[in-house]
Amino acid sequence: MKLKLFSEWVALFLVLVMCLSCTKNKKNQEENHEDNFKKQDKNEVKDTYFGEFNADSAYFFLEKQVSFGPRVPNTPAHNLCGAYLVSTLSRFADKVYEQKSTVTAYNGSLLPLHNIIGVFNPTHKRRILLTAHWDSRHITDQDNDKSKAVLGANDGASGVAVLLEIARLLKKYPIQNIGIDILLNDAEDYGAPDDYKPEKEDTYCLGSQYWAKNPHIKDYTAEYAIVLDMVGGKNATFYREQLSDEVARALVDKIWNKAAQLGYGIYFLNEKGTAVIDDHLYIHKIANIPAIDIIDHNPSRPRGFPEYWHTQRDDLSNIDKNTLKAVGTVVYSVLREM
Ligand SMILES: [Zn+2]
Predict the structure, then answer these.
(1) Residues 49 and 173: beta-carbon distance below 8 Å
(2) How many CB atoms neighbour CB 229 within 10 A?
(3) For the segment 4-16, what is each residue's pLDDT rounded down to a tens digit?
């Protein structure tokens, strides 16, 4: 009787503690991102001195971007998200540069360009550039109704989310032997639709093209650049993109081998993929930096990209934390081993 009563008290106490910590956690999530994930980090450091890529934290960054709505240049959502990214990256990086300019889109629209660059270890000669686009597409041109803007949970927010989580880890566990630059590039996805006449070239990747011509530091160069694009989708597949394999095979080998070693071979298929037009193309062509693209593109799909690509369905329902975890862990591990 006594024992039963005692165990009931213990159970009641535990339920109360759980409720309390639940509410507290919820409050923290809104108030302070750092506090919210501090506890998880503490557990993780036991195994490794440089922490572990936290998919919950990355998802938080992803959800936050999506909460602004489509981040299309010339919209309030784009302005607000840009400000959020500057303030977030400033919490983690040693220095943050902003590039503001105006570029002309394929249809003559003038776009206010806002590239954001977070620099870690600014004085180190040996540098790696990590980049993802933070804008989302102005039209749903793969839908029957092409008039909407793309929410870009995967195509836009996912790459940035993974990079912000890596930035958070770099602040906490600084890397000594390399310098890292995180470029959140703008106006990647304002390119001409396939059927646009007259046909125009190089209408995508306006932010990375601008950066490659006007790097944030004069004569900037890096050993490699890594582009992350659509890295949060369910059942994502990352093939060895063709140009990446041509210009930076050693790095592609390193990343795909690391993925296999960590048990993420189901995402990173060590097979030849097709060529994709993305930021890595211009970073290589204009800035002459060997650049690779980690992108959810599968030669066996009709358009290569996930079926919701450039439609109204690129929303949170297609995001999988396991994919964010796989990509983040692989890239972060490779950086730590450089
Ligand atoms: Zn896109």
Answers:
(1) yes
(2) 25
(3) 444 555 455 555 5
Q: Please list, residue by residue across 64-103, b when 16 or more beta carbons sit within 10 angstroms of its beta carbon and e when fewer do.
A: bbbebbbbbbebebbeebbebbbebbeebbeebbebebeb
Ligand 1 mean position, distance from CA 250 (Å): 27
For 303, left (φ over 0), alpha (ψ -120 to 50), or beta? alpha
State pTM to two decimals. 0.87
Which residues face 180 on adjacent strands? Answer: 120, 128
Express each pLDDT in 225-274 by its tens digit.
999 999 999 999 999 999 999 999 999 999 999 999 999 999 999 999 99
Give first-to-last CA distance, the chain, whole Å. 63
Instruction: Give me ligand 1 centre to Cα 313, in Å.
Output: 13
Residues 6+ apart with CB under 8 A from 112: 73, 74, 100, 101, 102
Ligand 1 centroid – CA 216 distance (Å): 24
Q: What are phi and psi of 258, to 5 degrees?
A: -65, -40
How far, in Å, CA of 16 to CA of 242, rounded?
56
CB 331 within 8 A of CB 130: yes
Distance (angstroms) between ligand 1 centre and the Cα of 304 equals 12
Tokens read off for 270: 């060590």
Q: What is the CA radius of gyration of the chain?
A: 21
* Cβ(300)–Cβ(294) below 8 Å: no
